[in-house]
Amino acid sequence: MFDVKPLTGAIGAEITGVDLNLPISDRVAKALRVALWRHLIIVFRDQFLDISAQKRLTEVFGEVMRLPYVEPTNDDPDVIAVLKEASEHNVGVFGGEWHSDFSFLERPPSGSVLNAVEVPDYGGDTLWANQASAYEALPADLRKIVEGRDAIHVGKPYGVKYAPPKESRAASSIRMTRGDPDADREIHHPAVIEHPHSGRKALFLNPIYTTRFDGMSDAESAPLLEAIYKHCIRPEFCCRLRWSPGAVAVWDNRMTLHYAVNDYDGVRRLLYRTTFVDVRH
Ligand SMILES: [Fe+2]
Asked: Which of 17, 127, 232, 259 is least enclosed by beta carbons within 10 angstroms?
């Protein structure tokens, strides 16, 4: 039907032999979901999708989700332009720390689709880390901490209480709503979650949005979270994607962390992003 070539031993696969500009049959859609749940990030090259084809692909994996706090493109409320202009220097880039997208929502996104339009010849890679592998290899003392425990997530970059200093803010091309008290609400999620389809367990903690463990203060949680994060992003759990124009990546936001590398000052980079929440297939 199509070929699936793993990128590493732990995470990621490149899929060839499918043209996502054409209608996607039920049979192919099902196989793509299975590939995503297994490899957690899948990439297709040379697709050059328009927005309607990107949304059709997104719907293979769930319902298209509109994100709060980030302004969509003018053309489509379901699409975010992930853009850094060539003229933007010394700014944090959107996603420039390991994270799971919007983990502070009551119902976080199940995954996202990134569609590369304009990318540097080199630089601007994205990394993903498999949090199921990280959980499975977690040392016993840390496992004891996370097992059966909730963690607290807060939309820090968007809220009032933790608003970042101006100089560390994300690229100005990404228009974000700041200072919303709603983003300061504490949301509980289990520190270990189970994938609804694969049944695989994974750590669900990240340094952007997780503030502490339930039943512990920020200060008590900090050294434990730090030790866990250090483990979570070990190279054995990671893959790194070098973008090319027309490349499309789909990832599972529950079982992975990702990181956007900001090493391409002076070059314009534009990707379109859509987001989805799971529906039972
Ligand atoms: Fe992200």
From this structure: 17
Q: What is the pLDDT of residue 57?
A: 98
pTM of the model: 0.95
Domain count, the chain: 1
CA 253 / ligand 1 centre spacing (Å): 9
Give the model's pLDDT for residue 257: 98
Domain span at residue 67 reads 3-278
Which is the catalytic residue, given 56, 99, 212, 269? Answer: 99
pLDDT digits (tens, 9 = 90+) for 217-244: 999 999 999 999 999 999 999 999 999 9
Catalytic-residue membership of 273 = yes
Task: Write the CB contacts of 233 (distance below 8 Å, at least 6 apart in sequence).
Answer: 98, 129, 134, 257, 259
Alpha helices, DSSP H, located in the chain: 26-39, 51-61, 131-136, 140-146, 218-232
Query: Is 258 a catalytic site residue?
Result: yes
Give residue 153 CA to ligand 1 midpoint distance, Å. 15
Query: Exactly one of 200, 212, 269, 273 is catalytic; which is it?
Result: 273
CATH code of the domain in which 26 resides? 3.60.130.10
Separation of CA 64 and ligand 1 centre (Å): 16
